[in-house]
Design brief:
Elements (H helix, E strand, L loop, with lengths): L2 H36 L8 H11 L1 H4 L2 H21 L6 H5 L3 H24 L4 H25 L6 H29 L4 H11 L3 H11 L1 H16 L1 H15 L13 H15 L4 H31 L3 H5 L3 H24 L1
């Protein structure tokens, strides 16, 4: 990036970074308010949701031309780098720990949920991309998957609004699932491992997976985390498949000529491989472990700045006016995922 390009990007980047920093600062206070209102077990509002809401509240400020290029940089280029760094959270050994049967169940559930969400969205008259966002959020990993899918999908008129809605919906649905799904597992007679698989395969965000599963038992928690990590690993093939499918469909879905493998996908895969082979002990581990931790934190911060930029470019009125179809598609995809996984575990 040239000095002149950096000068043009700086105002929007600094504005998005300021909103992200404010969301981190406000997150503890929001947690205290939520617990005071709903009890000590109530989950805090994630910083990512706060960043989105604060950004939308400052939409009029962000509409100034001086911020446009920097906000675009955050929502596109910075987002892609942050998604690539997600590969550092995964190791191939996590996948082998699942077992073939569980791995196949998670893959089938993911593919079926993605296809169902796109189909249901089209049946209800939505843009295909909106259904794809809902499918990615429910099938893979909530807000992170929403942002990764948005980076790979072509543009449509209300894309920013649909991304913002999906991020908020994923967090709300994850919180409800954290409370509702453990009793479902108990009613179905699942043991600790089966409960962990159900929770790890169906709750959208990692924080809620951990909260729900470890509240059941340590065994359920361990199983849930491994399954959830495998879902994050599937982010790469799922996003690539969505991008290629939309490109192949062409004008019918707003697609473009079939793209090459995007750079962030290559980066994700390489970093996942690196995390799988580098040791955590010895001289190499002494250097690698803190570096990995710093890069994982950088990924989280990058995603937070990107979602702040998205909020700054999104109208509150537009998100509030999405209508019942968006809710129906997201709720339908979440329910389909739960029914599929619970049914397979009950029958297996």
């Amino acid at each position: 990036m040239t000095l002149e390009a950096a000068r043009r990007v700086a105002p929007g980047l600094l504005l998005a970074a300021a909103v992200a920093a404010a969301s981190l600062a406000l997150a503890p206070a929001s947690g205290a308010l939520v617990r005071a209102a709903f009890g000590p077990q109530a989950p805090a509002v994630p910083a990512m949701v706060l960043a989105l809401v604060l950004g939308m509240a400052l939409g009029r400020v962000a509409a100034r031309p001086a911020f446009a290029e920097g906000l675009g940089f955050c929502a596109k280029r910075l987002l892609r780098v942050a998604v690539a760094l997600l590969g550092l959270r995964i190791a191939v050994g996590d996948v082998f720990a699942l077992g073939a049967g569980t791995a196949l169940l998670v893959v089938a559930a993911m593919a079926g949920t993605l296809a169902f969400a796109v189909w249901m969205g089209r049946r209800l008259g939505q843009e295909a991309g909106a259904g794809a966002l809902a499918g990615a959020a429910t099938a893979i990993c909530g807000a992170s998957a929403t942002l990764a899918a948005a980076a790979a999908l072509p543009a449509w008129r209300d894309k920013g609004r649909d991304v913002a809605f999906t991020v908020v919906a994923a967090n709300a649905a994850s919180t409800l699932a954290m409370l509702a799904y453990p009793p479902v597992a108990a009613a179905l007679g699942f043991d600790a491992r089966e409960t962990g698989v159900l929770l790890g395969a169906t709750i959208h965000d990692m924080a809620q997976v951990v909260g729900a599963a470890y509240a059941v038992s340590p065994g359920a928690g361990d199983a849930a985390v491994v399954v959830k990590l495998f879902r994050v690993l599937l982010l790469l093939p799922a996003v690539l498949a969505l991008g290629w499918w939309f490109a192949a469909r062409g004008p019918a879905t707003g697609g473009a000529p079939t793209p090459a493998v995007p750079g962030f996908a290559v980066g994700f895969l390489l970093l996942c491989a690196l995390n799988s082979v580098l040791p955590a002990t010895g001289a190499v581990g002494a250097a690698w472990v803190p570096l990995r931790a710093a890069l994982v934190e950088a990924s989280s911060l990058g995603l937070l700045v990107a979602i702040a930029a998205l909020g700054l470019g999104t109208s509150v009125r537009a998100v509030l006016g999405v209508g019942w179809r968006h809710l129906a598609v997201f709720g339908g995809a979440s329910l389909a995922l739960l029914v599929f996984v619970a049914g397979a575990l009950a029958l297996g």
